DNA sequence: ATCCTCCCCTAC
DNA sequence: TAAGGTAGGGGAGGAT
């Protein structure tokens, strides 16, 4: 596929294994579950349920289902019908399910417009009635009587008279009118992807069950579907208008398998509070971008091995040569959607979200007849229509792409041990052949099988390395294959435009064009030194090799995942900060979901924001981001996270630190890197904090704990491939014997855990945790304030260890020093030690090194700690006075305390920040004349510490302008920090 | 030197 | 109307 996400032309990529062979010490790659996002999860879930249903169905056909007593012979009257039952119905949902089962229909447990043909519903509440289009997703909403009556008459009756709301049909027809090319898919689905509107509209009338003249091919059970479709569409008088309209510029209008529910779907952050989730469902780039994760899960059994097994049973490697075959499906998206319409093969067809000839929807894929009109991926549909008015456009059909991709890869893995997936339609194979073998034969066989299985053509390039194979494919397309023998390499490359080389995009091409280099032959005249100077050392080196046909990269089945993120740069328009916060929250949820799906968590969080460039007007592309400045900021936290609350807290802080006018924001992205395995025993929530707790209590450090595992029971929702930075030993659950002793648990931390985590932990300790907590509570009430004097230790580390290993009653004594009005989370006084312990070694060492000896010995009194964070900021001055120290000294000694990646959902966070800001500002005012050096120290320190603390980052960002203003006022100029 | 952050570029 | 994502590589420049 050559997807373009903009108007600038994009070139094909380099082999993605370019990074070289994987480090043998490292695990091959992250295992990714299919549920790297919500859509994937539901797809899998539905698949399971469908399988289950089909099992039921087959057993029932043998009379094994006791629920079905009727031995009638009415087979398959519901063939092609898939119902989803909404709400209470008579007959019941279960009965309807059995009816469908018995009569060849399908019963869908979870609504999906892709699989459902009819919604069965007995009554409709007002809210749904008003929003029928949204509710029905454009599908017919029908009373259950339709099913009962159809069975009674042993024929599939028209559902039209059984519509729940008379209005429904009008609504539906309006939708069709609104968008000529999106139709009801409702009725058709599993076996074909499109239906000819023209023929349908020209049908004589809506005779139920009557077969039609639709020119559909390849499906065996169409007749029912066709008649349903025709009936459905014929009831729309307005459709005729649509048809004549479309006939003006379209020879043929197709309606395809995709639903029309998106027609009325809100499509920007202004109108849809769930924009993030909805957006990804329809994004082709999201589909492409996340495909690899799904592939890894589905083909994990092919990826685990090293692929070292030789294809050739003959082990004599001396006479073998390595050959790389690159296989690429031809205009994949189009091929898939038109595979049931052979008559369209030689007509221009493209895939696009919209058929609007004035629209700015982007063409995603165009077949070769369309390309002959100059239509290319990435082009606006209006430009495509301008070049070719009779262009036929199909909407996306992601589930079919997925299906064909699966077939494609099944074939590849069948023929070859070493398969490197590039994308859903493109892969490298490495085969070893004896000198006499013709490498073209195997490519021929594979291509043939692909076509026979998928009815889509593929092209193949064959060469001695990945580069040559990939280049050869370009020559082979469409539907062909090409072998570049070693002695023809130079000749082949001589006239090849440099833009054909992987890695040469728009920018590199322009740079080289400046030097009057346009072909690989010309590129060869440039020395490596000059190339490296102009393009960077790596790129220069790579291109020097490429233009000579040299490529050392190896076909690798597996690659390590280094980052996981999500971004949206379309439809983003915020009115106010409430909008942006909601959006950010949803984005965090999405990212968290993906992290969990891959079973990982990360330490570096990067927020990227696109902001309208000054002077840039509303973009040409509808709801696009237009001309933007991109800003990004990353924060590395001590312990890896993947929970929504932590992500959100950090994302929110970082977002705020940009000080943006949210109205100007056009895109937001959130990404996590420095990934490590998530602790799977607490899947989902708050793993970071639990890990912190455990690791501190058990003194395991920051690395995730390796655990013995019973990996054989592979869970559906657990990752199944390789993992980051860990061996194949996958931890599946924390053994109770590995739990830290109860006495080692910090009760303050426990107390602040979200309830669901607490319950889980409590369960792990068989209820003991709650008992201890309760008994301790009484103690605290009774004992009043308890001094912590016993904790004083010779050195900081010992002190921390002690802190963590205190008896529960002692460990939580500090709690008693908090007054009711404490704004600080109760766990902070304890967790700071945990945090310190979990800091990167160098940071911790740094902090410890700088602690004055007396402060190492004497921890800050709890009272001063708590007072720092709350109450009026004047208290902090008191505190400094009492301690007789400067703020910079205090910051140094309390660095860990001020590193609260804790209590992410703390509602008082803002109040805390505001108080601290006030304090710092006042401090600046006090010191600005007398001690500018102290202020310099303070802010340098704040800046440095903010790397590991979103609180300090926020504090720094908010107070720096004040400092600089004061400096300017008193001294002129700015402090250079 | 080596690492880190903040970009940009590229591929599908 | 329309769904401009995702991930890796690498360079510049600053911190250590």
UniProtKB/TrEMBL annotation:
Q: Where is the composition biased (Polar residues)?
A: 251-267
Q: Which cofactor does it need?
A: Mg(2+)
Keywords tagged on the record: DNA damage, DNA repair, DNA synthesis, DNA-binding, Magnesium, Metal-binding, Nucleotidyltransferase, Nucleus, Transferase
Source species, domain of life: Eukaryota
What is the free-text note on the cofactor? Binds 2 magnesium ions.
List residues of the BRCT domain.
Answer: 73-164
Q: What name is this protein filed under? A: DNA repair protein REV1
Phylogenetic lineage:
Eukaryota, Viridiplantae, Streptophyta, Embryophyta, Tracheophyta
PANTHER family reported for this sequence? DNA REPAIR PROTEIN REV1
Subcellular location, record wording: Nucleus
- UniProt record, GO biological process: DNA repair; error-free translesion synthesis; error-prone translesion synthesis
The task this protein performs is described as: Deoxycytidyl transferase involved in DNA repair. Transfers a dCMP residue from dCTP to the 3'-end of a DNA primer in a template-dependent reaction. May assist in the first step in the bypass of abasic lesions by the insertion of a nucleotide opposite the lesion. Required for normal induction of mutations by physical and chemical agents.
Which stretches are tagged as biased composition: Basic and acidic residues?
226-245
Q: Where is each UmuC domain found?
A: 324-505
């Amino acid at each position: 596929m050559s997807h373009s996400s903009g108007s600038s032309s994009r070139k094909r990529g380099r082999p993605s294994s370019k990074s070289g062979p994987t480090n043998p010490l490292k695990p091959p790659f992250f295992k990714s579950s299919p549920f790297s996002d919500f859509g994937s999860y539901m797809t899998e879930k539905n698949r399971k349920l469908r399988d289950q249903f089909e099992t039921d169905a087959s057993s029932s056909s043998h009379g094994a289902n006791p629920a079905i007593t009727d031995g009638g012979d009415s087979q398959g009257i519901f063939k092609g019908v898939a119902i989803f039952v909404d709400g209470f119905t008579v007959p019941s949902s279960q009965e309807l399910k059995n009816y469908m089962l018995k009569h060849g229909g399908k019963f869908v447990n979870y609504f999906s417009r892709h699989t459902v043909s009819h919604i069965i519903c007995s009554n409709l509440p007002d809210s749904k009635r008003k929003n029928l289009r949204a509710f029905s997703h454009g599908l017919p909403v029908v009373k259950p009587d339709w099913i009962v009556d159809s069975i009674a008459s042993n024929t599939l009756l028209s559902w039209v008279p059984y519509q729940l709301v008379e209005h429904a049909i009008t609504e539906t027809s309006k939708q069709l009118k609104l968008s000529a090319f999106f139709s009801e898919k409702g009725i058709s689905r599993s076996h074909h992807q499109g239906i000819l509107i023209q023929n349908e509209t020209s049908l004589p009338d809506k005779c139920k069950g009557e077969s039609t003249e639709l020119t559909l091919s390849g499906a065996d059970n169409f007749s029912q579907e066709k008649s349903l479709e025709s009936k459905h569409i014929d009831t729309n008088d307005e459709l005729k208008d649509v048809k004549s309209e479309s006939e003006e510029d379209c020879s043929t209008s197709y309606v395809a398998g995709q639903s029309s529910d998106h027609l009325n779907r809100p499509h920007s952050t202004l109108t849809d509070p769930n924009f993030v989730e909805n957006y990804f469902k329809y994004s082709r780039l999201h589909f492409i971008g996340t495909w690899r994760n799904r592939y890894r899960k589905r083909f994990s059994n092919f990826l685990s091995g090293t692929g070292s097994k030789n294809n050739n049973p003959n082990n004599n490697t001396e006479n073998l040569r390595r050959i790389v075959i690159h296989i690429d499906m031809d205009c994949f998206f189009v091929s898939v959607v038109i595979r049931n319409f052979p008559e369209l093969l030689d007509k221009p067809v493209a895939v696009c979200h919209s058929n609007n000839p004035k629209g700015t929807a982007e063409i995603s894929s165009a077949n070769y007849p369309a390309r002959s009109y100059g239509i290319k991926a990435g082009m606006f549909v209006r430009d495509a229509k301008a070049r070719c008015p009779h262009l036929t456009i199909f909407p996306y059909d992601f589930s079919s792409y997925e299906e064909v991709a699966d077939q494609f890869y099944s074939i590849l893995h069948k023929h070859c041990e070493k398969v490197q997936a590039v994308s859903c339609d493109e892969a490298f194979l490495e085969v070893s052949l004896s000198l006499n073998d013709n490498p073209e034969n195997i490519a021929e066989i594979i291509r043939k099988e692909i076509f026979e299985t998928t009815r889509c053509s593929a092209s193949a390039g064959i060469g001695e390395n990945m580069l040559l194979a990939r280049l050869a494919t370009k020559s082979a397309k469409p539907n062909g294959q090409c072998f570049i023998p070693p002695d023809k390499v130079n000749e082949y490359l001589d006239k090849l435009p440099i833009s054909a080389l992987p890695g040469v995009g728009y920018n590199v091409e322009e740079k080289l064009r400046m030097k009057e280099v346009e072909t690989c032959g010309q590129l060869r005249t440039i020395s490596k030194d000059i190339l490296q100077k102009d393009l960077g050392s790596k790129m220069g080196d790579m291109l020097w090799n490429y233009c000579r046909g040299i490529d050392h990269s190896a076909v690798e089945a597996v690659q390590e995942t280094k980052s996981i993120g999500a971004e949206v740069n379309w439809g983003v328009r915020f009115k106010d900060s409430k909008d942006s916060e909601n959006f950010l929250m949803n984005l965090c949820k999405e990212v968290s979901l993906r992290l969990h799906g891959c079973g990982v968590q990360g330490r570096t969080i990067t927020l990227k924001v696109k902001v309208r460039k000054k002077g840039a007007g509303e973009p040409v592309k509808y709801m696009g981001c237009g001309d933007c400045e991109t800003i990004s900021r990353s924060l590395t936290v001590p312990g890896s996270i993947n929970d929504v609350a932590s992500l959100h807290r950090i994302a929110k802080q970082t977002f705020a630190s940009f000080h943006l006018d949210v109205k100007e924001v056009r895109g937001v992205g959130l990404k996590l890197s420095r990934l490590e395995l998530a602790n799977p025993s607490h899947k989902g929530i708050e793993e970071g904090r639990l890990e912190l707790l455990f690791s501190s209590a058990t003194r395991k450090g920051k690395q995730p704990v390796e655990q013995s595992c019973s990996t054989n029971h592979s869970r559906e929702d657990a990752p199944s491939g390789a993992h980051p930075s860990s061996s194949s030993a996958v931890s599946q659950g924390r053994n109770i014997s590995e739990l830290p002793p109860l006495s080692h648990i910090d009760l303050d931390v426990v107390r602040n855990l979200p309830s669901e985590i607490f319950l889980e932990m409590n369960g792990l300790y068989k209820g003991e945790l709650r008992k201890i907590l309760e008994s301790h509570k009484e103690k605290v009430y009774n004992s009043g304030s308890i001094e912590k004097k016993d904790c004083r230790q010779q050195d900081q580390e010992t002190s921390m260890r002690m802190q963590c290993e205190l008896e529960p009653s002692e460990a939580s004594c500090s709690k008693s020093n908090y007054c009711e009005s404490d704004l600080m989370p109760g766990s902070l006084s304890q967790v700071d030690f945990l945090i310190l312990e979990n800091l990167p070694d160098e940071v911790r060492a740094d902090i410890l090194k700088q602690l004055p000896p007396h402060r190492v010995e004497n921890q800050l009194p709890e009272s001063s700690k708590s007072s720092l964070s709350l109450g009026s900021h004047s208290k902090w001055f008191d505190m400094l006075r009492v301690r007789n120290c400067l703020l910079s000294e205090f910051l140094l000694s309390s660095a860990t305390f001020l590193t609260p990646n804790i209590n992410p959902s703390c509602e008082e966070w803002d109040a805390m920040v505001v108080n601290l800001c006030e304090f710092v500002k006042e401090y600046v005012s006090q010191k600005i004349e007398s001690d500018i050096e102290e202020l310099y120290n303070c802010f340098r320190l704040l800046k440095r510490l903010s790397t590991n603390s979103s609180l300090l980052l926020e504090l720094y960002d908010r107070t720096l302008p004040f400092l600089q203003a004061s400096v300017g006022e008193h001294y002129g100029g700015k402090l250079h920090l």
